[in-house]
Structures are given as structure tokens and as C-alpha cells.
Amino acid sequence: MTVREELERLEHKRLNPLAAFSDESKGRPTPEEPRGNDVRTCYQRDTDRIVHSKAFRRLMHKTQVFLRPEGDHYRTRMTHTIEVARIARTIARDLGLNEDLAEGIAMGHDLGHTPFGHAGEAALSECLGKPFRHNEQSLRVVDVLENDGRGLNLTYEVRMGILGHTGPRVPETLEGQIVRRSDQIAYVNHDIDDAIRAGILTNEDIPNSISEVLGHSHRERIDTLVSDLIFSSREAGAVVLSPAVDQALADLRAFMFDRVYRNPVAKGEESKAKGMLQRMFEYYCRHPEALPEDFQPQLSFDGMERTVCDYIAGMTDKYAVDKYTEIFIPAGWNVRG
């Protein structure tokens, strides 16, 4: 028996019968035979493929909420991803579900985010004339764009968990549903932390009706939400929050949209970011020869707009500013004589 087979056997002994077992995966888009000496389950391999991808490395330079903030302690897409993964693993472990699957989904869930957060998403939606959804782009990244256009060939469960971490499609696996909730828990709470750091919010601004349920500090809110999700889910046999906590979280999200996500201090540069990305989109559509060499073959089978969209969506905030400067801002030059 190989190490991988032993790990798969142990899953059946220790995990909840409702868990997604590695040896019962629905498989990969392109079937792969297990390697005889591989010590990883299929979900562990998926996590490794994501973490070693170029798209994952770029997350460290992509904005979470505040556009290009000054300071080293604001969240990026990568720190958000790590926080989601840690919350999801804790919940999955305590519910007897597959931690490795939850981690794989969490690590890949935001790979499709644009530069400048939702400002970039709005810009590309306008350019395409249809909604650009980062969860769909995240799936496209792992299915098509990574690995020189071959994709990462991930398992069905990880792929559908990535797609369903937001939006109307709810993942089939409980592990995917855990990541969906962990994403909400993570971003609402760390966005409060960043907003306090930016001076546009204080803990005292949060309505008492919310704080009395969830707690009065970052630590208390996280503890309440995670603990409530675990105990409520154990009782229900499904991934749920208790009604009171679920309502408090919904109220907190509404409060954050009103005070932070639409706040002119947080979003003051958003129109500039949108205009910059839209202008670059138009430029590359007129000058496809300016696209990087590795995007040139894609033009013939995906078309102009889709290829340009993929290129811009994959940019980091800094790279987008640098490319915009290179294209549109006159460079300094010397006149001799």
C-alpha cells in the first residue's frame, strides 16, 4: 500500500461520512493516473499546484479594499486568501470534513481577481458589455490560463468550490460551502481592521445591535462566527449559522457597504483606476501586437476582447500602473546641442 493509499484509507476511518473523500473524487478534466510514489492525495496535489502557480504569486500585489494603501499592514488578496484558508481548515477539522479540500478551494478562490479590487471588475464589465465575475475568472485561470495555457487540471471538487465561493451557484461539497462562509467571515472582519487603520472607522461606530451578538473586537467577532458555524452545523448536518448570528453578519456586511466599501476615502481613487484599465483595454484592442508574446497565440482561438481581458485581469496593481505609464505618459528625454 502506498502512502497516498494509506492516507485515503485513513480518511474513511476518521472523517465524517458527509465529507468529500479523496478516493471518491469525480476526477480531473484530463484523467491522470496516480503516481506510484506520490505521498499526496488528489486534493493535496491541487493545493500544491495552486500555490506554485504564477497567479497565486501575483495575489501578494493585488488590492483587497484600499487602492494602493500606504503602509505595510493592509490586507492584500494573498493575506486574505491565507486567512480564508486558515478559517476554513479550522471549521472543516472540527466538523470532521476534508481539510485538504477546503484548503485547496480557499487557496484558489480569488485567483481571478483584477487589479484594484472591485474597481477593476467594474471596469472590465463595462469594457466587455457583460458582467466580469471574479469567481468565473478564477476558474478560467486554473482551467485555461495557468501552465502556459494548459491549466492546472484540478479536481472537480476544487474547481466547483472555486466557482461557487460566491454568486448563485453553491458548491456541492460541504467543504466548498465552508470556504464560501469563511470568505465572508474573513473579509468583513479584516476590512473592519483595515478601515480602522485608515481612520475611517472605529470599533465604536459598529452598531450595538451587531456588537452585542458578534462581539466588540476583531478577535471576538471571528471567534463568535467560527464557533457558531461549527456548533450550528453539527446540529443541523449542514453548513449553517444560527439565525441570530447569520442576521448579525448580514447587518455587519450592510454596515460595511454603507460606511467602508462605498466610502469616498476608501474609494477616492476608484474612478481613476477604472479609467486607467478601460483606456488600456481600448489600447490593446487597437494594438494587439503590443500584447506579450505568450498571449499572441490566444488571439486566434479566444478572440481580441477575451484575450485582452485575461491579460488585464491578471495584472497586479503596480504592473497596471507601470504599463499605463509606459503607454500613455511621455517619458523623460534629453536634448543635446
What does this structure look like?
The structure is a single chain. This protein is an all-alpha fold. It has 17 helices and no strands. The protein starts with a helix and ends in a 9-residue tail after the last helix. It has one domain (14-267): Orthogonal Bundle (Hypothetical protein af1432), CATH 1.10.3210. Helices cover 63% and strands 0% of the residues. The mean pLDDT is 92.
Compute the average pLDDT: 92
User: What general form does the structure show?
Assistant: flat
- Report the CATH superfamily: Hypothetical protein af1432
Structural class: mainly alpha
Q: Hey, roughly how much beta strand do the residues contain?
A: under 5%
| CATH architecture grouping | Orthogonal Bundle
CATH class: Mainly Alpha
Strand runs, count? 0
Count of domains? 1
Q: Number of helix segments?
A: 17
CATH topology: Hypothetical protein af1432
Low-confidence stretches: none
Main sheet, how many strands, which sense, barrel?
none
Helix content bin: 55-70%
Order of helices and strands: HHHHHHHHHHHHHHHHH
Rg over CA atoms, rounded to whole Å, is: 22 Å
